[in-house]
Amino acid sequence: MISILFADDHEMVRIGVSAYLSAQPDMEVVAEADDGEEAVQIALDLRPDIILMDLVMKEMDGIEATKNIIAEWAEAKIIIVTSFLDDEKVYPALEAGATSYMLKTSKASEIAKAIRATFEGQSILEPEVTGKIMNRMREKNVENLHDQLTEREMEILLLVAQGKTNQEIADELYIAMKTVKVHVSNVLGKLEVHDRTQAVIYAFKHDLVE
């Protein structure tokens, strides 16, 4: 079962989405939160497989809550589920460490699909979000930063782009999990990106993967 924490300050939204997800054979909403501070506390206490995070909430917004969770638990998988597609919301949320970004206008089945994909180590972005990031990278005229990657780091980047988790990469390359984390950190630093999602987008933009 995929355990889920759902943080949203609209009670009716929580009730509806939680009911749908809990009806899935492989999912269970184990906790709900109606503000960011509560979401952080519950997330760090329960360590659920997936955290669904609204952006605009009282006390602490979703971006700040995401930052606080990632600071204490770097492996947390957080899916932003929001009505906002503004640049000032999208980029800070992804830079804070969110794994995926979905809109509340998405069908419930699409949210469930995103949860399964994120649980498996993939990053799911709404097409509009991907387009915004691609345009921003074009505007910045990013050079081929990947040229400075070592052969092993390039191998790691391609596996990350395939949606592989750190454990899967470690198993495939026969190296320690700690070593994988070091390589991933080096890749992100050299590519000047903040997280795996942006690294994947970089790889696709530069035709490193199909």
Automatic annotation (TrEMBL):
<dbReference type="InterPro" id="IPR011006">
    <property type="entry name" value="CheY-like_superfamily"/>
</dbReference>
<feature type="modified residue" description="4-aspartylphosphate">
    <location>
        <position position="54"/>
    </location>
</feature>
<dbReference type="InterPro" id="IPR058245">
    <property type="entry name" value="NreC/VraR/RcsB-like_REC"/>
</dbReference>
<dbReference type="Pfam" id="PF00196">
    <property type="entry name" value="GerE"/>
</dbReference>
<dbReference type="InterPro" id="IPR039420">
    <property type="entry name" value="WalR-like"/>
</dbReference>
<dbReference type="InterPro" id="IPR001789">
    <property type="entry name" value="Sig_transdc_resp-reg_receiver"/>
</dbReference>
<keyword id="KW-0597">Phosphoprotein</keyword>
<dbReference type="InterPro" id="IPR016032">
    <property type="entry name" value="Sig_transdc_resp-reg_C-effctor"/>
</dbReference>
<protein>
    <submittedName>
        <fullName>Response regulator</fullName>
    </submittedName>
</protein>
<feature type="domain" description="Response regulatory">
    <location>
        <begin position="3"/>
        <end position="119"/>
    </location>
</feature>
<dbReference type="Pfam" id="PF00072">
    <property type="entry name" value="Response_reg"/>
</dbReference>
<keyword id="KW-0238">DNA-binding</keyword>
<keyword id="KW-0804">Transcription</keyword>
<dbReference type="InterPro" id="IPR000792">
    <property type="entry name" value="Tscrpt_reg_LuxR_C"/>
</dbReference>
<feature type="domain" description="HTH luxR-type">
    <location>
        <begin position="142"/>
        <end position="207"/>
    </location>
</feature>
<keyword id="KW-0805">Transcription regulation</keyword>
